[in-house]
Write a structure and sequence with these properties.
2 copies of one chain form a homodimer. The first copy, chain A, is mainly alpha-helical. Chain A has one domain: Orthogonal Bundle (434 Repressor (Amino-terminal Domain)), CATH 1.10.260. Chain A contains 5 helices and no strands. At the A-B interface, helix 1 and helix 4 of A face helix 1 and helix 4 of B. The structure holds a DNA duplex (30 and 30 nucleotides).
Chain lengths: ~70, ~70
DNA sequence: TCAAATATAGGCATATATGCCTACTTATTT
DNA sequence: AAATAAGTAGGCATATATGCCTATATTTGA
């Protein structure tokens, strides 16, 4: 198994999240509303600007109705 | 798929991390040193006291030489 | 091409994780 | 039982994520 840098990981995670969000037909705003977090955060997470929490990742998976492991599968 | 509460998720994550840490023969201190983070944080994460970042989870997986998905597999 | 919807960018205040430290507790080993 | 190792607890300062807001850019649809 090869490991990437932390910043690259955040970007990869964000891209993956964006993929699943669109796949499930959510806009950033809808996702943020369902999550109960700020819409600007979704944009930041998807671009890899911020290093969000595991709890947030879990809640996102919950809203998207996917397994959290899928968010880390890339 | 059934989803648990956020606080329960953090506790489950911590227990799982502890399982893998011991499985790989690390003390909290060794893991913290290899990670380059504070030992007190490991204790807090394992007990579900804090909601650590996805980047931290990734680095932990890297040090333990496991796939990050395993940390979320419970 | 224009309008509307969606996403990006950044500033500022606040909340929470983290680092650093000391003290205490629990577990392990002899 | 005593000594050592490992883990827990909490305080305080700092760093970073988050919330809230406004403005700009980009994409999508008519």
């Amino acid at each position: 198994m090869e490991y990437i840098e932390n910043s690259a990981f955040l970007i990869a995670f964000g891209k993956n999240l964006r993929k699943y969000r669109k796949l499930k037909g959510f806009t950033q705003e809808q996702l943020a509303n369902d999550l109960g977090i700020e819409i600007s955060q979704i944009s930041r997470i998807e671009r890899g600007v911020i290093n969000t929490s595991i709890g947030n990742a879990y809640t996102i998976a919950k809203v998207l109705k996917i397994d959290i492991k899928e968010l880390f599968d890339f």
